[in-house]
Amino acid sequence: MDIADILSRDAVIPGLAATSKKQALRDVAQRAAEVAGLDERQVFDVLLERERLGSTGVGHGVAIPHGKLPGLTAIHGVFARLEEPIDFESIDGQPVSLVFALLAPEAAGADHLKALARVSRLLRDPAACEKLRRAADAPQLFALLTEASTTKAA
User: Residue 112 catalytic?
Assistant: First the structure.
């Protein structure tokens, strides 16, 4: 599974102005609702519920919030680069500046896990994260995310 399969150009936010984890999740939920035709509140609730189980801040300034939604027919991603890093209660205590949210159908099973693994593999690469942090705009971010996906396919 490539990131290009789950991320559309419209789902890339180059300068999210959130000042808290809750606000970041709300803003990401809003974009996800727009691009996937979902109910914004339902998306936000699913992401927030997952955060209550434990932070999706995976370390090194990266968070991968995710959840499953009824009625969804495909996996959708939303990528956001924050204007300023925020506290995300990450496992390493570092503030987060890169967020990649994943939403999957309730019955996605292995596909959901494959998408999570793919995104995680990309965002564990310090060089890739640095390029994403320095990218000029949404088209460049999208290109970096999808290029990395196809060149590092497992």
Answer: no
60, 66, 76, 112: the active-site residue: 66
Strand partners, 80: 13, 99
How many CB atoms lie under 10 A from the CB of residue 139? 12
pLDDT digits (tens, 9 = 90+) for 27-52: 999 999 999 888 999 999 999 999 99
pLDDT one-digit tens code per residue, 1-18: 799 999 999 999 999 999
Please give the model's pTM, rounded to 2 decimal places. Answer: 0.94
Closest CA to 117 of 61, 83, 75: 75
Check: CB of residue 25 under 8 Å from CB of residue 65.
yes
Burial class (CB in 10 A: 0-12, 13-18, 19+), 123: buried
Domains belonging to the chain, first-starting first, are: 3-151 (3.40.930.10)
